[in-house]
Amino acid sequence: MKIPTRTQGHFSKSLLLSALILALWRPQGSQAALHIQKIPERPQKNQDLLLSVQGVPDTFQDINWYLGEEAYGGTRLFTYIPELQRPQRDGSAMKQRDIVGFPNGSMLLRRAQPTDSGTYQVAITINPAWTMKAKTEVQVADGWGPSRAWWAVGL
Ligand SMILES: *[C@@H]1O[C@H](CO)[C@@H](O)[C@H](O)[C@H]1NC(C)=O
User: Fold this and answer.
1) Residue 24 maps to a domain
2) For 35, which of 8, 42, 55, 148 is 20 to 30 Å away at the CA?
3) What pLDDT does residue 29 have?
């Protein structure tokens, strides 16, 4: 089929426009990706676990951490509001856990227990219309697994 030159011209113009829009949008797209890094990846019982969040914007309203498949009041570990003097407010899922939140969005779970295993979710409110989210599965190993043996050999 022969496409008339005029139509072709229109087509490439709109293609160029689409490419331009994509190029302009992309930086925001990559900014929107939050990622949680577990340090260490496979924590053992009584080990400290850092959930380090990458891709947090410089300014935000608050951060909420949840432990569970669903993110709501009942699974909220704590809220972190950077502009408050005491920025961390513990939620109902905190219980006896020893968790400290950091201004960069990360959290440290001290002396992790197998019962702390589960889905950890973070929600960062940038503004009333925009919340960034990420989740990760945490498995806290109980007792003398192979990695504990390696740890002992390493000493
Ligand atoms: C966030 O802060 C904690 C505590 O200072 C630090 O250990 C962690 O590496 C930081 N994470 C990022 C992604 O900057």
Assistant:
1) no
2) 148
3) 44
